[in-house]
Amino acid sequence: MVIKKNKKIILITGASSGLGKTIAKNLSLENFQIVVCARNLTLLKKVYKKNKNVFFSKVDVSSEKQIKQFINNILKKFGKVDVLINNAGEVFNCKFESIKSKQLDKLFKTNLYAPIFFIRECLPIMKKQNFGRIINISSGGSVNCANNYSAYSASKAALNTIAKSLKNELNGYNIKVNTLSPGPCKTKMFPKNKLSTSLSIPTIKYLINLKENGPSGNFYWFMKKIKIIPELKIDWGKPNKIN
Fold this sequence. Notes:
The chain has helices spanning about 20-25, 40-50, 65-80, 100-130, 140-145, 150-170, 200-210, and strands at about 10-15, 30-40, 55-60, 85, 130-135, 175-180, 220, 225. By secondary structure, the chain is of the alpha/beta class. It is globular, with a radius of gyration of 18 Å.
């Protein structure tokens, strides 16, 4: 497959259904090459088999090994990654004292570890080309912290802080890292919600097309930038070694 140099390669995780599917199908109508992954290969084939602008692959994002292999395959096939959209997610609802370690492992491997590993693998590529746009799909739950969703809220809140940290760490590179909440949209995870997943598309496109002097480290509620982490001027220095 020959890819035009000016054609952005956009990687979207968890794109077999819900928000990820909406993002992938919408962006595939534009001058982008879309790369998607999910656990369910049968569903991926059903959704994307006839779409020439979408390359799909089965990946269990809870597996660090599979993530590494997937990024290597993308590099071999397309030579770069311009945009990373960390969308894959897990959720469970229960009282805090009833949380099981297996639930936590599954949720944090998908909601937090996977985005960290995807970003880690993509950053050297983006640094080399001095361009990258990273979008973490967070949640309003990271801010409003609803009853019985403490673990889910914590995992999504971590994505907000990662964006802020990377903004500072990547100073000097044309790489932007932001998070957005898609609002209470209707998906398999939240079937009782009312909003359409398509409402997030304008924000996604805005963050994909940020200029070099564009914002980074921010949290977006649709197109509205919301300051959820205060600016504190602290000189952390380097930690002392503890014997």
